[in-house]
Amino acid sequence: ALDIGAGGCRALMPKPSPAGGDPTITLQLPSGETVVAWGAVLQANATTDGRYEYRLVFLELEDVDRLRLAELINEPAPA
């Protein structure tokens, strides 16, 4: 993931995602926990280096995963 927020994330992929399907988003957190969400692609762009950048929105997220993301987002960045 390039960045993450409470409502979604941006991800960089080595190849294009199949068209027409909503992705299942799996994020490995620094704590070692995994967050799984059902999502949708808001935007997809090819990058100059041949990879693909996706803007994804979380459509369905378990409460425990929403709390995990909130904790991650609210943590101060390392100096």
Quick recap:
The protein is an alpha+beta fold. It is built from one helix and five strands, in the order E-E-E-E-E-H. It has a five-stranded antiparallel beta sheet.
Describe this structure in words.
By secondary structure, this protein is an alpha+beta fold. 15% of the residues lie in helices and 46% in strands. The protein has one helix spanning 63-74; strands at 3-4, 8-13, 24-28, 34-46, 52-61. The longest helix has 12 residues, at 63-74. The two termini are 20 Å apart.
Kindly list the characteristics that best describe this protein.
single chain, 1 helix
Order of strands across the biggest sheet?
1-2-5-4-3
* Computed Rg: 13 Å
Which spans of ≥5 residues are poorly predicted at pLDDT below 50?
none
Biggest sheet features: 5 strands, antiparallel
Number of strands: 5
Structural class based on helices, strands and sheet pairing: alpha+beta
Number of helices: 1
Output the helix-strand order. Answer: EEEEEH
Spatial shape: globular
Overall residue-averaged pLDDT value: 87
**How much helicity do the residues have?**
10-25%
Query: How far is it from the N-terminal to the C-terminal residue, by CA?
Result: 20 Å
Our estimate of the beta-strand percent is over 45%
